[in-house]
Amino acid sequence: MVMLAKGIEDASPQSGEGSAPVLSLTGISKSFPGVKALSGVALDLYPGQVTALVGENGAGKSTIVKILTGIYQPDDGQIRINGEPMSFPTAQDAGSAGVTAIHQETVLFDDLSVAENIFIGHAPKTRFGLIDRKEMTRKAKALLERIGAQIDPGVPLRDLGIANKHLVAIARALSIDARIVIMDEPTASLSHKEIEETYELVERLKADGKAILFISHKFDEIFRIADRYTVFRDGEMVGAGKIAEVGERELVKLMVGRSVDQVFPKRTPQLGEEVLKVVGYAHPTEFEDIGFTLRAGEILGFYGLVGAGRSEFMQALFGITKPSKGAIRIDGKVAVTRTPNEAIGHGIVYVPEDRGKQGVIKGLPIFQNVSLPSLKQTSRNGFLRLAEEFTLARDYTQRLDLRAAALDQDIGELSGGNQQKVVIAKWLATKPRVIILDEPTKGIDIGSKAAVHEFMAELAAGGLAVIMVSSEIPEILGMSDRVIVMREGRIAAEYEGADLTPEHLVRAAAGITEVRT
Amino acid sequence: MIRLLFKSREMILGAAILVLVAAIASRFPAFVAPSNLANVFNDTAPLIILALGQMVVILTRCIDLSVAANLALTGMAVAMLNTVMPGLPVPLILLVALCLGAFMGLINGLLVWKLDIPPIVVTLGTMTIFRGIIFVISGGEWINAHEMSDTFKAFPRAVMFGLPVLSWIAIAVAAGFVVLVGRTPLGRAFFAVGGNPHAAVYTGIDVGRTQCAAYVLSGALAGLTGYLWVARYAVAYVDIAAGFELEVVAACVIGGISIAGGIGSVGGALLGALFLGIVKNALPVIHISPFWQLAISGSAIIIAVAFNATSSRAKGRVILKKAEHAL
Ligand SMILES: Nc1ncnc2c1ncn2[C@@H]1O[C@H](COP(=O)(O)OP(=O)(O)OP(=O)(O)O)[C@@H](O)[C@H]1O
Ligand SMILES: [Mg+2]
Asked: Which of B320, B111, B128 lies closest to B211, judged by CA?
């Protein structure tokens, strides 16, 4: 149920072969001080079709999205909608030209309600020109239902987890009636159930005749939902065509410039002593009775649907929130982690999922972001040593395949995926005993993903105990020695060895089986 | 990149100051005589010291509006102490002033940290309270020059290597801040807390404690300046330095310290203070009513903020709202 129906007349759903593009970009260039983010790229979007935009981290994908939504102005080039030249000096202009986007870093307001977030800037009005709250709540509810999100439109946004926030962002994008819908990594923080729902949504938008630009690092989904593809490499358009006429290997090669096999590193886990034991951890509203053990050198996967309480539990373990019950033992000794500082003191670190908000410190250069939790090691007699910090940052960011102009660049200037790598590097550099990685490869391109996995495997081989929260089944299966599935705040099942199959995981996460091994 | 930008922003401010001085000098060459410049610097020294303290507070997304009241209260307290115990040596007086100022800063800091009250509310409140206390302890009376001991009054004016002690203290504080802000974990924490308080929490930095530390620093410097001020002008009364806190904040803003937190530099605060100090001292020389000074400072603030707004990225928070923590 979409409100407002202006501006669709001229774009009658003419899907299929031979139709003209609704949106056509030619020769678009954009430079930032010191970086050429885009040089002369072209992009066409067709009504009723999904065009996948692929490229490595920093290839310029989000930059083109921001140009299309009036956030950045191109230095050069043309934007045409239905053949007519257009320019988008502001976000409003892009909206009224029928372009809407779900951005990679969702821009929402924590203090406002879900409904207010969805309709901010274009709320339904009463006769007197005031915001019509009833109508707004009703419409918000309808929109949320349409995308299959079970969210109460009245709650403040801050109460939602990151995945639900993402769904709110999707609802917001759809609240503007648009002909062109852009999705910048829409499934990055979702698990299979929500991902399926997102695909259904895309299908529906397609059937409505919308032109969709879909940015993703996941090849399975690109091949599943896209009709066309466009590949960017280092700010240039290096290929475009129909998805049916291209193979995955070919696409990866276009994107990276070489072939990459998505294989997980072979590991023969050398399990050491028990490092961490969690007993009966509980929280009044988020999770209950969580208990497990973790040994040195082990990679323990945590799988579950969005809202299963995985991140919430990890936050409590790390001392961000307080558990109501439960105890932990480190090396057999009772330990408490009331603050992140205490957790870090015990050698437990947490790479949060919402890295934009909880990880990246804008205003500090890359190397100082990396060294921030390691300042004790890099400083001497209470004084910082910048050279040491620099070396530390270089070592770890190199391993993770970071693409940056220089390490003293402001972190805010990096592309989304590269910011993620900095945050991961920051925590690995603390040389922890137990690392909790929440969605470690979210938003990271295929080549760098392999680098992250390899690094994880190497660290585990060196005795690091790893907890990996991931919603990507291939990653969970490929990396974990053992997997705990959580459902509605409780441990639903635990699998290892031959039991570790996609079916088991999905069933346990959805509550179809009660098997507990 | 940002570094360069910073450098260039400070350079722009530095250039603006040079142009200003050159313009004045073209009409009134006496203004640039070394002795006069030294005078101008000495006059600006209290502003410099307070602006540096304010800078770290602003870096952590807070604000300290109580600095001038803290200065006045400490000044009155040490002046009264001096009348009761004229023999008290200057180092002890300095220590008392620093501690008293730091204590008042600690009150601000604890209120912000433990009770989570927005910084602007806390310091508006303590500002009024501190002024009230001066009235209570002094009974509204002035303490005049003849009631103060000579050593008490002489200290800030004593000349060493061609400059008064007051100037040297400002230089020393600035040098200390270069080290503190750029070379210590605490200095780094100020930036981290202001840049992204949520992420700072995840990094193991206690946001409230860091903000409290900033207030203590700002308070200690206000206390120190309180003694120097009262001794230099040889008078203490309820209303000394009234409204000075706004000049301090203005110096920071002109110096490119982002009011949204996380961005700023010692050099910027220093230049911002110098800019205001020069304007203030030049106006009487060029026969412009000192009332124009307010208009000029105001314009400089708006220009500086507009400049910051166009060249820095959008930052979410403003001083009216306390940076929320993840806790
Ligand atoms: N505001 C900015 N200032 C400076 N450089 C920028 C800015 N925004 C982006 N860049 C640079 O432009 C290039 C393209 O970035 P963009 O965010 O478009 O990449 P992306 O393809 O979306 O990558 P990812 O997959 O990591 O999200 C990168 O080199 C990035 O560092
Ligand atoms: Mg991106």
From this structure: B111
Which residue in B has a C-alpha nearest to residue A351's C-alpha? B202
pLDDT classification of A450: cutoffs 50, 70, 90: confident
- The per-residue pLDDT for range B72-131, each reduced to its tens digit, is 999 999 999 999 998 889 999 999 999 999 999 999 999 999 998 999 999 999 999 999
Share above pLDDT 90 across residues of chain B, in percent, rounded to a whole number = 54
Residue B1, in any domain of the structure: no
In angstroms, rounded to a whole number, what is the distance separating the alpha carbons of residues B121 and B14?
34
Q: Measuring from atom 3 of ligand 1, which residue has the nearest CA?
A: A413
Check: CB of residue A124 under 8 Å from CB of residue A268.
no
Maximal C-alpha separation, chain A: 71
Q: Which of A340, A364, A365 sits opposite B204 (nearest CB)?
A: A340
The structure tokens 């303490």 sit at B143
Whether the per-residue pLDDT at A3 is higher than 70: the answer is: no
Contact A320, A301 (CB under 8 A): no
Report CA-CA distances (Å) from A517 to A395, A502, B243: 41, 16, 71
User: What is the residue-averaged pLDDT of chain A?
Assistant: 85
The DSSP 8-state label assigned to residue A149 in this structure reads -
B243 in any annotated domain: yes
Domains of chain B: total: 1
- Cβ of B1 and A339 within 8 Å? no
Pocket test for ligand 1, best of A413, A418, A419, A442 (most atoms within 8 A of CB): A413
Res B311 pLDDT > 70:
no
Residue B28: Cβ within 10 Å count: 14
Q: β-pairing, A236-242 with A228-233? A: antiparallel
Q: Is residue B51 part of a domain?
A: yes
Q: What's the CA-to-centroid distance between A440 and ligand 1, angstroms?
A: 20
Neighbour tally for A247: CB within 10 Å: 10
pLDDT, tens digit, for every residue of A128-169?
A: 878 888 888 998 998 888 877 788 988 998 888 777 888 888
* Residue from the list B185, B194, B202 with its beta carbon closest to the beta carbon of A359: B202
pLDDT band at A420 (very low <50, low <70, confident <90, very high): confident
Q: Which ligand 1 atom is at minimum distance from the Cα of A104?
A: 27
Q: Which of A454, A449, A370 is nearest to A411 (CA)?
A: A370
How many Cβ atoms from other residues are within 10 Å of residue A34's Cβ?
11
The domains of chain A, with CATH numbers, are 23-112+160-249 (3.40.50.300), 259-347+433-511 (3.40.50.300), 357-431 (no CATH)
* Residue type at position B13: L
Q: Which residues contact A75 (CB under 8 A, 6 or more apart)?
A: A29, A30, A31
Name the more confident of B321 and B282. Answer: B282
HEC states along A472-493?
CHHHHHHHCCEEEEEECCEEEE
Q: Which ligand is nearest to the CA of A54?
A: 1
Residue B72 is part of a domain; what is its CATH number? 1.10.3470
The bridge status of strand A333-335 relative to strand A325-330 is antiparallel
ipTM > 0.85, yes or no: no
Q: Which of A30, A415, A444 to mutate to test the pocket of ligand 1 (most atoms within 8 A of CB)?
A: A415
B120 exposure class (CB count in 10 Å sphere: 0-12, 13-18, 19+): middle
Tens-place pLDDT, residues A292-328: 999 999 999 999 887 788 888 999 999 998 888 888 9
Mean pLDDT in residue range A224-239: 91
Q: How far apart are CA B131 and CA B104, in angstroms?
A: 12
Domain span holding position B282: 37-309
Is the residue at B326 inside a domain?
A: no
Residue A121: CB atoms within 10 A of its CB come to 10
Res A125: pLDDT: 80
Cβ pair A408:B206 closer than 8 A: no
Ligand 1 nearest atom to the CA of residue A415, by list position: 17
Separation of CA A418 and ligand 2 centre (Å): 9
